[in-house]
Specification:
- The structure is a single chain.
- The protein is mainly α.
- The protein has one domain.
- The chain is built from three helices and no strands.
- Helix 1 runs parallel beside helix 2.
- The N and C termini lie far apart (27 Å).
């Protein structure tokens, strides 16, 4: 999802995204929704939330992090 779309979602939830990176905004949205703040964590390895709004970005972030660790 594009950052501008994420910012719009956050703004509609009353979250101030000033100087926040995409990762932090998504975690703030998860927190505001009373969901697990799991975006970009190792939880993606066993996550079964297939309909998660952030899943595609989370999986790709995890893959890029793994290649940086190798």
């Amino acid at each position: 999802m594009k950052y501008s779309e994420i910012q719009k979602l956050a703004k509609n939830m009353g979250i101030n995204t000033y100087q926040m990176k995409k990762h932090a905004v998504i975690l703030a949205i998860q927190r505001a929704e009373n969901n697990i703040e799991c975006f970009g964590t190792v939880r993606v390895e066993y996550c079964q939330e297939l309909s998660c709004l952030w899943r595609e970005d989370c999986v790709s972030l995890n893959k890029s992090n793994q290649s940086n660790w190798s």
